[in-house]
Amino acid sequence: MNFIDTHSHIYLSDFDEDRSLVVEDALKVGVQKILLPNVDSGTIDSMLRLSQSFPDNCFPMMGLHPTSVKENVEDELAIVEKLLKENTFIAIGEIGIDLYWDKTFFAEQEEAFRFQVGLAKKYNLPIVIHSRNSFEELFFLLDELYTPELKGVFHCFTGTEMQAHKIINDYGFKLGIGGVLTFKNSGLDEQIKNIDIKHLLLETDAPYLAPVPYRGKRNQPAYIPIIAQKLADIKGISIEEIAEITTQNAKELFNLK
Fold it and tell me: Are strands 3-5 and 92-96 parallel, antiparallel or unpaired?
């Protein structure tokens, strides 16, 4: 079985002591590719070093995370744009709106999202969307910005079945499914049980949101099979089929060989 972890931050300091081992552990359980969404200018160097160390396994994205949108947003976006001209990335991400912690820079988050969607269209890259407490705000923006060439995924999907159908039917985007699926009271299993697997991607969001039985501990790409098995149980099919379909979904969205 081959898997793709479509969203992992293993370039962060949480993995400074054992980063190579984490990649090797992932490879041992069939996670052949690990996609790396950027956060801000402070994470670019470590992300690119990792992708250069494992060029066949780790693939970088470029973008400005909504929680990093502050007073210096224009400077940060200029760096994103500059690097897109100079390097090869598989997506614009992660981008979006986060209204969970602080709404101070909501207007700036909106403008940063608009700008980065424009970059995605310019460079013909998919977008990876962060949507914490902000589905309706993002729908409002996407209803305006969406054009048929725009592709993407709502990473760490935790919305309702109705929201899932809007994402799929109105925009043709994928849903990123991670460790939350294994949480006892998340309810995510009920919300996606009627969603066709062809619309789903697997992800960890490492080091965050580790699946049961590792909940509360550091997440890592090697836990993707746990999420896959839970999804297989919900769908009543084999984990092999989950691996095959979600891997193909990821290859098509991110143009992976």
Answer: unpaired
Cα angle, residue 233 at apex, residues 218 and 216 outer, rounded to 5° = 15
Q: Which residues pair with 202 in a beta bridge?
A: 177
Looking at the chain, the whole-number percentage of residues with pLDDT higher than 90 is: 99
**What is the value of pTM for the model shown?**
0.97
Question: What are the helix (H) ranges across 64-185?
Answer: 73-86, 106-123, 135-145, 161-171
For 179-192, the pLDDT digits (tens) are 999 999 999 999 99
DSSP-derived pairing of the beta strands 31-36 and 3-5: parallel
Retrieve residue 223's tokens: 């836990």
Decide: 81 and 120 in contact? Cβ < 8 Å. Answer: no
Average pLDDT over residues 153-180: 98
Angle at 105 between CA 103 and CA 111, to 5 degrees: 125
Topology (CATH level 3) of domain 3-254: TIM Barrel (3.20.20)
Distance CA 220, CA 228 (A): 14
SS3 state at 129: strand
Q: What backbone torsions phi and psi does residue 80 show, to the nearest 5 degrees?
A: -55, -50
CA nearest 85: which of 36, 52, 125? 125
For every residue of 197-217, DSSP letters joined together read GGGEEE---BTSSPPTTSTTS
The DSSP element (H or E) to which 36 belongs, if any, is: strand 31-36
Q: Rounded CA gap, 98 and 233, in Å?
A: 31
Candidates 27, 50, 47; CA nearest to 39 is: 47
Q: What is the pLDDT of residue 101?
A: 82
